[in-house]
Amino acid sequence: MVMPDVHAPAPDPAERRGRWSRLATGAELPFIAQLVVAGAVFIATTGMRDDHDVTFGAGFAAAVPRLILLVVLAAYLHWLLFTLPAMALARLLGGPRWEAARGALCAVAGAAVLTAAHAWWVTSLWDVPFVPAAAWIAGAGVLPVTAAWYARHRWLWWGGMLARVGALTGIALLVTALGGFLQVRTGFHAYEPPRLERSQYVGEWVGGGGAYRLSLRENGEAEVGNLPPGKSNSGLWEACSGTGTWHFEPKHESGGIFHRGPRDRVSLSIGGCSFGDWQVAGTADRPELFYVVRDPDGPGGPDVTTLHRV
């Protein structure tokens, strides 16, 4: 006598993938990807803003390994503190079996609860508004939570998420590179230093949160207070204060990654202080004066001092 086949019931997806570590499979990958793409966009759009004549040199290249390590650590910290708890809340709200639409809504609800909690914690530690803090936290968590929900809905493991996120990241980087190339070639929204008359430089200039002060008078006299000296080997507590003269020189050629066109400059002659030319930056409505101190032997990049009109 032949016994009929007995089929065991299909395992519940929630049971098969119910371990905490699998609730947010590969969610750290889109977090890393969005930071990488954001950095690429920042570099590609350099020609659309003022870089104060500071380029990405050897100091930046030396910092790349540390930046990569920090990004990876931040991704796993975000996975632990945001995505994983959000998916755990979604499973509790969604019950033992997740349907696609219900699981997505529960994931959104869990992310919203975590966003509010983290934003409250941030505002309790630092003096920042609640709404901007919540917006930044939620914005950084959209892609990881979406990827975690997608991985759970599709039963994807870490390798499958790596292939998908890697392909999308590669496409985004190619589009960013093409956009940066077109921006350089066409000059679309390229930054141009403001053109001001000499009289528009007369007045009070401050910087460093009010620590630096520069006063330019109509008769050519100048007074500085606590300005950093214009040399790379200055001591920690050295500062420049005193009186002297200033001279306006228009259309000084600038450097930078991209050619910005000529910059105006202001030359200071202060007793006991050594400065080069303060160059013009900012916009016509909010002009700036900046001075770059480059140390070829130093481990870091150039030191930029920026002043703005009071």
Short description:
By secondary structure, this protein is α+β, with helices and mostly antiparallel strands.
Strand count: 8
Q: Provide the residue-averaged pLDDT.
A: 81
Order of helices and strands: HHHHHHEEEEEEEE
Distance between the termini: 99 Å
How much helix, percentage-wise, in residues? 40-55%
Computed structural class = alpha+beta
Outline the biggest β-sheet: 8 strands, antiparallel, barrel
Q: Which stretches are poorly predicted, pLDDT < 50 over at least 5 residues? A: 1-18, 232-237, 254-259
**Largest sheet, spatial ordering of strands:** 1-2-3-4-5-6-7-8
* Helical segment count: 6
Task: Report on the architecture of this protein.
Strands 1-2-3-4-5-6-7-8 form an eight-stranded antiparallel barrel. The chain contains six helices and eight strands. Helix 2 (28-44) packs parallel to helix 6 (158-186) and helix 3 packs across helix 4. It has helices at residues 13-16, 28-44, 58-94, 100-125, 130-154, 158-186; strands at 203-207, 212-216, 221-227, 240-253, 262-270, 277-282, 287-293, 303-309. With 310 residues, it is α+β, with helices and mostly antiparallel strands. The model is unreliable at 1-18, 232-237 and 254-259 (pLDDT under 50). A hairpin with a 4-residue loop joins strand 1 (203-207) and strand 2.
Quick tags:
alpha+beta, 6 helices, 8 strands, elongated, 45% helix, disordered N terminus, 310 residues
